[in-house]
Design a protein that fits this description.
By secondary structure, this protein is mainly beta. The protein is built from no helices and eleven strands. A hairpin with a 4-residue loop joins strand 7 and strand 8.
């Protein structure tokens, strides 16, 4: 099992910045990808961005140029630096990890952390 604990929730004004952190613990070997998803009220959960164990990064188009994912392997932590935040970025943000277990990809989720962008 993998446990994911997010931190960094908050209320920020439009144009502001916020950094989310996600610390992984437990059986973290063979984690092949970590990243962030979000879910706004009344909407489906969407992928924000992911980083693979090889360092490949991808983002949803709506956050490109504004959000940055990074990973500290020594701390088993992934970060989401969010800049130039917009009201439409308001959502619960979930940390995500996928681990290979006997050649099957198993998903793990954090509990979610609220980000609110409002003046």
């Amino acid at each position: 099992q993998v446990q994911l604990v997010e931190s960094g929730a908050g209320l920020v004004q439009p144009g502001g910045s916020l950094r989310l952190s996600c610390a992984a613990s437990g059986s973290i070997s063979s984690i092949v990808v970590m990243g962030w998803y979000r879910q706004a009220p009344g909407k489906q959960r969407e992928r924000v961005g992911i980083i693979t164990s090889g360092g490949k990064i991808s983002y949803v188009d709506s956050v490109k140029g504004r959000f940055t994912i990074s990973r500290d392997n020594a701390k088993s932590t992934v970060y989401l630096q969010m800049s130039n935040l917009k009201p439409e970025d308001t959502a619960v943000y979930y940390c995500y990890a996928a681990k290979l277990v006997e050649d099957v990809l198993v998903d793990f989720w954090g509990q979610g952390t609220q980000v609110t962008v409002s003046s």
